[in-house]
Design a protein that fits this description.
Bound molecules: ligand J2J
CATH class of the largest domain: Alpha Beta
Number of strands: 25
Strand content: 15-25%
Low-confidence stretches: none
CATH topology of the largest domain: Rossmann fold
Number of domains: 3
Mean pLDDT: 97
């Protein structure tokens, strides 16, 4: 039985994906048990001076599951997890997987506005935060969230003696066995968050079957094995470092995860040398910093085989620099938390690796590239990418109305990405037709930020668009129509920060305007606003 509010695949697809062995009924709880039996004392995760073996991780997950169960956490309960790259992240996730409770994977940068919504909408029973030393006072955030989220019974804090007044996660580990919970491959394993293009974020239910299938296919494409060492520089809660093949793929393969708390060359380069890292993943701005950083630092990168870059478009020009600088293979990754992941293959000719965003990882992925009337465009022409497959969701959690727009009647997900196919059948991302800004891989739903700004008493109307940026690819620009008073940009930013909006969503630039340019149908023309800001930027140069 799928969690209420989640759409499942039609029965003929379920049969197809099972018969073809995409879905094998594996679950994450069992996966870790099997890996512990196979790899025992081999190290699963390294984080600074701390490391944990497969066997220990298995035991710790059991003990934590037992403790959480005694606190009343049950199958189907949602638990908002907001943890940085730490070993506890893994213990928490696997404990929840074994309980059949569903981690809602928040990012460390999310703040009150996001977290209170996650807790409220999913009716989460618990919220798990890092203790002091995380660079932000999550306990204060949790106090505020708890005042409003009626469903929230617990806040758990990682680290010893956290001093926040909330229960320490460390006190919950209990060696007495938990009451066994029946989990099936078809159960929801976790909620990913959608980059979003609407006023409120959407929740993406991923089942054990479909997520583990995506790990298996990713591992095959990325040639992951027991000797793989994956360096996590992106926040592991995000779908890319979690599953493409990411940290979970690495554990599936019996390899070793190395956690980095940051992505700077000063943190990451020494780790690559010391831990003999074989593969790592990043967004384009990090790749740029690494390409600069490598010029002035000497480290031994000889263990590094694959550098994955994805989450936003990586320019051909930059792509060409990777192999000469690091001596490793670049892999472009075009994926989405909703499912579909495309990779360039490790043995692809250079021109495909430099110029395309890869091709689907599974032969069961179905793609359509369509025009505005949903008609397929001729081969090689640009259109919106629609997709369906064994690891692409059929609907967001409790979002019936939105689902009717985001999926076709026959179950294809509308990605909102404008792409075309190369003659080899590889995808080239050309743009997007969704109301979203991709700020160096961090996705901003324009409408979400606009709604916050409309609450400002001095603002009559607001429209947020992307503007080109040589470092992040895009930044956000808010065009505003004011009433009598014109609030200063600094005041606007403080206003959004006070409302608890994640920092990356706060507009990079603010423009005041008398009225918005309109489309022939009378809607605000974001296209013209984007042109206006580009013109203004070129004039200044
Ligand atoms: C252009 N746009 C890209 C790319 C993602 C692996 C890798 C990335 C994500 C991810 C992921 C892009 N070039 N190479 O989940 O498993 C944009 C597209 C896409 C959206 C999805 C994974 N790679 N994008 O980025 O859910 O617009 O997932 O639809 O955060 O990012 O964003 P997200």
């Amino acid at each position: 039985m799928m969690l209420s509010g989640c759409s499942t695949w039609p029965s003929d697809f379920v049969k197809k994906y099972k018969d073809s062995q995409c879905w094998r009924g594996e679950t994450f709880g069992e996966m870790l048990r099997e890996r512990a039996n196979l790899y025992g004392k081999r190290i699963a995760v390294t984080a600074g001076d701390h490391e944990i073996s497969y066997l220990e991780l298995d035991h710790r997950a059991d003990q934590l599951a037992s403790g959480l169960q005694q606190m009343g956490i049950q199958k189907g309960n949602r638990v908002v997890v907001q943890l940085p790259n730490t070993i506890e992240f893994f213990e928490v996730c696997f404990a929840l997987f074994r309980l059949g409770a569903v981690p809602v994977l928040a990012l460390p940068t999310h703040r009150y506005s996001e977290i209170s919504y996650f807790c409220g909408f999913t009716e989460a029973v618990a919220y798990i935060i890092p203790g002091s030393g995380a660079g932000f006072d999550y306990a204060s955030l949790a106090t505020k969230v708890q005042e409003e989220a009626a469903s929230l019974k617990h806040v758990f804090v990682t680290g010893e003696g956290n001093g926040s007044g909330f229960t320490s996660l460390a006190d919950l580990y209990d060696p007495s066995p938990m009451v066994e919970v029946q989990i099936s491959g078809e159960d929801v394993a976790l909620f990913q968050l959608s980059g979003g293009s609407t006023g409120l974020p959407k929740f993406i239910p991923r089942t054990h079957n479909d997520y583990i299938y995506s790990l298996r296919m990713s591992n095959e494409v990325c040639q992951m094995n027991v000797d793989s060492v994956y360096l996590a520089v992106l926040p592991v809660a995000h779908n890319f470092p979690l599953s493409s093949p990411g940290v979970l793929g690495t554990l599936y393969a019996g390899g070793r995860v190395v956690l980095s708390s940051g992505s700077s060359p000063d943190e990451a380069f020494p780790l690559i040398e010391k831990e003999q890292v074989t593969i790592t993943a990043m967004v384009p701005p990090i790749a740029l910093i690494w390409l600069e950083g490598v010029k002035t630092r000497t480290f031994d990168f000889s263990s590094l085989k694959v550098m994955q870059v994805g989450g936003a478009k990586f320019s051909t020009e930059m792509a060409k620099r990777v192999k000469p600088a690091f001596g490793c293979t670049l892999q472009q990754v075009f994926g989405m938390a909703e499912g579909l992941v495309n990779y360039t293959r490790l043995d692809d000719p250079d021109h495909l690796i430099h110029e395309t965003q890869g091709r689907p990882m599974s032969s069961f992925d179905e793609l359509r590239i369509v025009d505005e009337e949903d008609q397929e465009v001729p081969q090689g022409e640009a259109g919106e990418l629609l997709t369906r497959g064994p690891y692409t969701i059929r609907g967001y959690y409790k979002a019936e109305e939105h689902n009717a727009r985001s999926f076709t009647a026959d179950g294809f997900y509308r990605t909102g990405d404008i792409v075309r196919l190369s003659k080899e059948g590889y995808i080239i991302v050309e743009g997007r037709n969704k109301d979203q800004i991709n700020r160096g891989g961090e996705k901003i739903a324009a409408e979400e930020v606009e709604n916050h700004l409309l609450a400002h008493p001095d603002l009559l109307d607001v429209s947020i668009v992307s503007m080109p940026d040589s470092f992040l690819g895009e930044r956000s620009c808010a065009f505003m129509i004011v009433r009598e008073n014109r609030p200063a940009p600094s005041e606007i930013r403080r206003f959004l920060q006070d409302r608890g909006l994640a920092a990356y969503k706060i507009p990079d630039r603010i423009e005041y305007i008398d009225q918005f340019p309109k489309t022939p149908l009378g809607k605000v023309s974001k296209k013209m606003l984007r042109q206006m800001i580009v013109e203004k930027m070129t004039l200044k140069k």
